[in-house]
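Figure S4 source data
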Amino acid sequence: MKQLIKGPQTPPWLQKLQFIIDPISYLEKSAKYGEIFHAPVIGNYDLMLLVSNPQALQQLLTNDSKQFVAPPDKILKLLTGDYSLFMLEGSRHRRERKLLMPPFHGERMRSYGDLICNLTKQVIDNLNKGEIFAVRDLMQEVSLEVILNVVFGIHEGERFIQLKQKITHLMDLFKVPLNSAALYLPWLRQDFGSLSPWGKFRQIQREIEALIKAEIKDRRQNYDPSLTDILTLMMSAKDENGQGMTDEELHDELLTMVLAGHETTATAIAWALYWVNFKPEILKKLRQEIANLGENPDPMDIYKLPYLTAVCNESLRIYPVAITTFAREVREEVEMMGYNLPIGTKIYGCIYLTHHREDLYPNSQEFRPERFLERQYTPYEFFPFGGGVRRCLGEALAIFEMKLVLATIVANYDLNLASNQPEKAVRRGVTLAPKNGVKMVFNGEYKSQN
């Protein structure tokens, strides 16, 4: 190397611990080492780099099959299995991504609009006036209802109820820091039965697997190509060789969609609701924009609202749900930012630090949606869903759901933050979530002053 890439000098085990316990503090303190720095915090690599320079990110994310390769994510494998899109490479990854793409675009998306709005109202209407509730938990309920409807096409019955309960239980395990740490520290993954943290995780995981495979078996036996849920579309999909997906592939991809698709979206919506209520002038402006559409607006018209879009983007910017992109590994020796990177180097795009670059986002800690109305950012300056071949497949559905849920709530219900204390971002599994879940008071239906 021409020169040595700098980074924190503390022992790797301590850096990893800091990154697990308080990732934002670790990143903000490490940013002094520059736009690319050595940070051995994920896996066991001699050279693991975090990069936040947009030009370097463009180089990293647009050369997946040349200078860099996108290896499987070993942490997410623990959650989603061997056949998840997260674990596939090369031609297998391209095949699977092509099979999974159609349900997340075009007319399929449009058909989910009314469903999302109605499910949101059903969940919120169960609150009592004056009740204090955790927005993060409630949005998880909404998002899980949406994803199970969209993915499985089911919204009732014993299996649906069990799936909801067990998936919620599984993800709630990561409220406990020790369980999140086990994703990064192999020695914590000790299965001593259901009384041990990892044992409990594995038990619930097996129960969810049995429920999903039972649903796949029933669908195979009673196949109905007229259904529009994602499971049916996945069963119908064939690659160029006429091959469909196996039960194992279906299971892991369904689990990936359900876990990644509801957990991250729920967190993103909770952050958005926190910010618009933390800054009442933004809430007022957002309500006015929605009201201008008239009564019972079309979900697609809501989706296209510019200020709503800016609010959601700014929420995803200031606290991106994912801290980093998926890893890239150097395939052939390459130069980046004046450094020669040897083969085998692992590089992660640091979404959080990029989103807080003062040259791109002045006063980056301030929540200001107008940023996204004043200029357009490149996919290497604003990329909450990652980039390149590992960019989140469910991005379109997540944004669609986030906008519709947020708009439905602010236009129809009156909520207040239960505390004026700022909400802190903490690790929840592999994501950044609000520490206190955003506590709010339900004041009933919103009645416009106009």
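Figure S5 source data
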Amino acid sequence: MNQIIIHVDMDAFYASVEIRDNPDLAGKPLIIGSLPSERGVVATCSYEARKYGVHSAMNIKEAYRLCPNGIYMHPNFDKYRVESAKLHQIWNDYASASEYIALDEAYLDVTETAGDIETAREYAREIRRRSREELGLSCSVGLAYSKTAAKTASEEKKPDGYFEILFAEDFVALMADRDVRALYTVGAKTAEKLNQIGVFRVKDIRARTEDIIQLLGQQGKLISELAAGVDDRKVMPYRPEDAKSISRELTFQEDVTDYDFLKHTLLLLAISVERRARRIGLRGKGVTLKLTFSNMKSITRSKPVPLTDHALIIYREAGSMLDQVPRQAIRLIGVGIHNLTSEESGQLVFDEFREESSAVQEEQLMAELEELRKIYGLDFSGNLDKIFHGETLYRTVEYMRKRFRRQK
């Protein structure tokens, strides 16, 4: 084997953390995401909830229709990030490279650290044991010769399972009669195109390779290789500096028609983007505004800017783009920076100019926050660190929306 790869996938991670911390939830259909009275989707759910047909990304109203007696909770991302960091420490003990796909999932390259399959199997057992004993959480683990095969293996025995696919011919045999959507990169739209030419099973891909490449180009070539068990992709450790953009968006519980309030929301989102950008040392050469209207149509607007990570500039540029949008009821608003770099702008090499400019921007930003304090009675300046953590920002904006509406 050229590579030995482990794929780890925590079992219903958010729900499992909540059940661990509150044993009274054990054995009950727990749904993490929005509440039934709110807009939104299911983030994850316990296996008891899945028996009712509930699944991740499902509209919360549909989840409630299927499981009206479920227990619904908002996610606590701060808690989950802490647990995720502990998991990463465990995983990193065994891998020469770790590629984190989400808080609860990763590819681990153990080719060099393990050296052979027997040792890799021991690593897999240790990862499962330590997750359970040290953190009280279960995971499913796949051991394989490639990333695609490792992820497929981890899904075979969920939850709390282990499976291995050691050779390409084993992967081909396992996948042959499965729907094409079981294959990595094949989503609903791609599957529909394949179905239209009579390709429904993974084995059909192998029989129609030339037709599929002609239909889908490079993607078709990749799909054909994967169906034949060929996948030489390396485990690529995530680096924050590799991000293409940094953004933050928020869905309102009721559509918003007042663009003054939308700008107030933009200011808080811009500060959240600034804090993320500064934490990883990146600046952007463009600002992006995203809107979803009440009819579910979404638009994105972007504008080049001098290199920046400052909330005030992000806010003002996004606000300027918002002014150009025909006024409609807004369901979701988001802002971000793109074309990222860690390099300093040439015009900022003079320290005195940079410090003076930054001081002026900071003073103006504080003035904007002071205006929000007068309107909403919230001490933004004293609670910024708390406000800009996930769920707290959402609750803050919802409080502002309701208060703004009453004042009108």
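The longest helix spans residues 351-376. The two ends are 68 Å apart (CA to CA).
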